[in-house]
Amino acid sequence: VDAAELNYKAGDEYLAAAAGKSNQPAVFLDSSGRSYMTAAAEFPTVRSNGIPLTGLFKTPAGVHFVAVLLGEAEQKMLVAGDSGYGFITQLQHMYTRNQKGKAFLTVSSSAVPLPPQVIPPSELPQSIVAITQQGRMLVFPLEELVELPKGKGNKVIHMAPKDIKAGTDRLLFIRLITAADKLVIQAGKRSFTLTAGNVKEFTGARGRRGKKLPRGFQRVTAAVIES
């Protein structure tokens, strides 16, 4: 099933999809950093228009959902807010039976969580790729990031506080890459591919500012990892 191609109610559009088992809990993350959980089997089938999540959960006023997750309880996840802080966690730390959700990812009032990234098992060392609105990219080893059950985490990439406050900079994308992968950067209709050797040019210590992407590719609209 291609979830993006399904029919939706007027005014609705595709946001996110997660693959898993019907006996696993479905976990949702909202824009305030709160997590919610319900049984995946409780949802209607693909032939339905679905049910509103606001009918299942009691969300704070003004928030919206940013991600849906399914998987094993011990599945490692990479989570971050667009203000540039994040951490490693396990999916089970987002579990809660409270309809009001659970305070999970701490973000400032002007920040929102990015969609969490699954950390797949790998025999190769994994690195984090962070890309900002101003077109800077930083790559650093995954193990430099702290593992927590909840909270704010470490600084992933540095951005000037005044730029964040002005809305001229934020963390746009966070990805995981190995030496066997390629990174495809898209800027509108243009794209270019970085091999492992190219990606090394952007390597630095966690929390640094990163390096500018090539001219013409600094307004990044997508970042895709090709295994």
Structural class: mainly beta
SSE string, helix = H, strand = E?
EEEEEEEEEEHEEEHEE
By DSSP (H or I, 4+ residues per run), the number of helices equals: 2
Largest sheet descriptor: 4 strands, antiparallel
Mean pLDDT rating: 95
How many distinct beta strands? 15
**Rg, alpha carbons:** 18 Å
Proportion in β-strands: 25-35%
CA-based shape: globular
Major sheet strand order? 3-1-2-6
Summarize the structure.
This protein has 227 residues and is mostly beta strands. Helices cover 5% and strands 31% of the residues.
What does this structure look like?
The chain is mainly beta and 227 residues long. 5% of the residues lie in helices and 31% in strands. It has two helices and 15 strands. The protein has helices spanning 161-166, 196-200, and strands at 25-30, 34-39, 65-69, 76-80, 85-90, 102-103, 117-118, 127-132, 136-141, 154-155, 171-177, 182-187, 190-194, 211-212, 222-226. Strands 3-1-2-6 form a four-stranded antiparallel β-sheet, with no helix packed on it. Strands 7-4-5-10 form a four-stranded antiparallel β-sheet, with no helix packed on it. The protein has a four-stranded antiparallel β-sheet with strand order 11-8-9-14, with no helix packed on it. The longest helix has 6 residues, at 161-166. The radius of gyration is 18 Å and the shape is globular.
Please tag this protein with its features.
31% strand; 227 residues; mainly beta; globular; 15 strands; single chain
